[in-house]
UniProtKB/TrEMBL annotation:
Domain of life: Bacteria
Domain (FAD-dependent urate hydroxylase HpyO/Asp monooxygenase CreE-like FAD/NAD(P)-binding): residue spans on this chain: 6-165
SUPFAM superfamilies: FAD/NAD(P)-binding domain
Protein name: FAD/NAD(P)-binding protein
Span list, region Disordered: 532-561
């Protein structure tokens, strides 16, 4: 019987895995027959998130030149590099374009079709446009993958879960808010992929509370303004009259930082320097384990500082009071936060040129405004300042930090579970919206359709309404009959709405304290509570403790997801080849 491989999820992660299978098969599998079953109710390539059937108003948050699905020689992997075009090369776009998601969906479909064409002749791919319900089967035997609407399971020698972002059941607080909304005829929209959310209950002219100031909020803002017929004339928003009034806040109280709007020139910081493979190996070898804040964060902080100051000293030497060689030597020798801070104070005269990660993470810490209107002016000034800095190459040390963040993420993936804070911090600094989206926020704020609530926003359900407050504006509160949780659902095993992960956990798969599926960070094999890897089950994606920044990435930045895809593809092909050989010698 021909070997059978089931991949659940045909979006960018499943497509990337398929590309790596095609690249590695000539070496590891040869011309032997193989059936690959792709299980996904959405079209292969884009999957759910990047499907072509969504609003053309929704953009990617990366320049087209910074989006690739193909490996290069910066990816640490055992498989061969198979070069391919970036999104801007494939589509013939200017590199600085922020493409819409429909176009990215077409690019991903093309990548999928190219991967199909590059598979050996004996390999056949079958797409099943259904949901996978559960996986069963013994550790040492064939697996059964049960599909919705199909009485018999797919039989699989191996199963790879490449599920992407998942729907989740409400947590305790969300459940209470939803129950209150039902009882008082209010609207509560829980965390969701915004393009899939029914926004019709959000009525024109009425206030809407929004918790979350990241990319999900940007999508919400677009769909409730331009999506309802409004338009921009330069820096002015012309309303259609169908828009609600959005009151937005979050833990930080500010939007994610703008994408950087200039190109790199000159020498790149030689990364990794203080947080690389050797440091990761030492952390993993600790018999008592490691703590992120105590053991990992100081290394991350020093690495990001090195990237920042390397760029500052080499590209803007007039703003340093010390030669780079002297600073680098003293920076490497400095032990502890106080020594580093004293060195930086002596070598970098302008505080605006110093990297303060704590201040970046808490931009409104201690800030208090006398009135709601004063805060609107203050936050508009903050956003305008962020836009100016992120588009001014005289502040290109910020781009050095961005490259440092990518390098650090590639190492942190190997550590497995580090908690959720790091991933949010990375997104806030490195994965924010295009500059034009922030300019649209400013226009909507001036038009009175977007109102800022502040940091540490809290929402209470009382007196038949939702009420929001923030310590940023003492004494201010706003009431509304609608609340939107503008963020993706938390990718936890226990609250996944899809039964697949819950059943996998019940069958012995382990989860982290944060509820992520525990996997081997090297090849994605699912681990049990004793740390044993399952020989026939793999998992890749944001619901695992080896999650990466994304299934596609910026060219020449190491691509942690590409490294994982390659390792998983080689493990899969090696297992199937050995099984086939064993079968033939019986």
């Amino acid at each position: 019987m021909r070997p059978q491989l089931v991949i659940v999820g045909a979006g960018p992660r499943g497509t990337g895995l398929l590309e790596r299978i095609a690249a590695n098969a000539p070496e590891l599998y040869g011309d032997s027959g193989l059936d690959i079953h792709l299980v996904d109710p959405h079209p292969p390539g884009g999957g759910r998130i990047w499907r072509q059937a969504q609003s053309p108003l929704l953009w990617m948050n990366s320049h087209a030149e910074d989006v690739t699905m193909f490996t290069d020689d910066t990816v640490t992997m055992d498989g061969p590099v198979r070069a391919g075009p970036t999104l801007h090369e494939w589509a013939g776009l200017a590199g600085s374009t922020f493409a819409d998601r429909q176009l990215q969906g077409r690019y991903l479909r093309w990548v999928y079709e190219r991967a199909l064409a590059e598979l050996p002749e004996g390999v056949t791919v079958h797409h099943h446009a259904r949901r996978a319900l559960r996986v069963s089967g013994p550790r040492e035997g064939r697996q059964q993958v049960w599909l919705e609407g199909r009485p018999r399971p797919l039989l699989a020698d191996l199963v790879v879960l490449a599920l992407g972002h998942l729907d989740a059941e409400l947590d305790e607080e969300q459940g209470e808010l939803a129950a209150y909304a039902r009882a008082h005829k209010l609207t509560h929209l829980p965390p969701d992929f915004t393009a899939d959310t029914d926004l019709t209950p959000l009525r024109p002219g009425e206030p809407v509370l929004v918790r979350g100031f990241g990319l999900a909020f940007v999508d919400l803002m677009v769909l409730l303004t331009e999506g309802r017929g409004g338009r921009y004339e330069g820096d002015t928003y012309v309303p259609s009259g169908r828009e609600p009034v959005l009151y937005v806040g979050s833990r930080r109280g500010v939007p994610y930082h703008s994408k950087i709007g200039y190109d790199w020139t000159g020498d790149r910081p030689p990364l990794p320097r203080f947080f690389g493979p050797a440091e990761v190996e030492r952390l993993l070898a600790r018999p008592d384990g490691f703590d992120f804040r105590r053991d990992v964060w100081p290394l991350v902080e020093k690495e990001l500082g090195f990237a920042h100051y390397h760029r500052l000293f080499t590209a803007h030497p007039g703003r340093a009071a010390m030669a780079w060689a002297d600073f680098e030597e003293k920076y490497a020798a400095a032990a502890g936060h106080d020594e580093l801070r004293a060195l930086v104070a002596a070598a970098v005269p302008d505080p605006a040129d110093r990297l303060d990660l704590t201040a970046l993470d808490h931009p409104l810490e201690g800030a208090r405004y006398a009135s709601h209107e004063a805060f609107q002016e203050g936050l508009r000034a903050y956003v305008e300042g962020d836009l100016k800095r992120r588009h001014d190459p005289s502040h290109s040390a910020d781009l050095g930090v961005f490259l440092g963040l990518l390098s650090v993420y590639g190492q942190i993936v190997r550590l497995g579970n580090v908690g959720s804070w790091w991933h949010g911090f990375f997104s806030y600094l490195a994965s924010g919206p295009p500059g034009p989206r922030l300019r649209q926020m400013l226009a909507l704020s001036r038009a009175g359709l977007l109102r800022f609530v502040g940091a540490g926003m809290t929402v209470r359900a009382e007196d038949g309404v939702f009420r929001a407050t923030s310590p940023t504006v003492p004494g201010f509160s706003v009431e509304a009959r609608a609340l939107v949780e503008a963020r993706l659902p938390e990718p936890t095993v226990g609250r996944a709405r899809d039964s697949l992960l819950r059943d996998l956990h019940a069958d012995g798969a382990a989860e982290t304290p944060e509820g992520l599926l525990r996997v081997d960070p090297e090849d994605g094999r699912v681990l049990d509570a004793a740390g044993r890897p399952h020989p026939r089950r793999f998992a890749l994606g944001p619901y695992t403790n080896a999650r990466t920044p994304g299934a596609f990435t910026r060219p020449r930045t190491g691509g942690p997801a590409f490294r994982q895809n390659d390792a998983t593809a080689r493990a899969v092909l090696g297992f199937l080849s050995a099984s086939l050989e064993k079968e033939l010698t019986r």
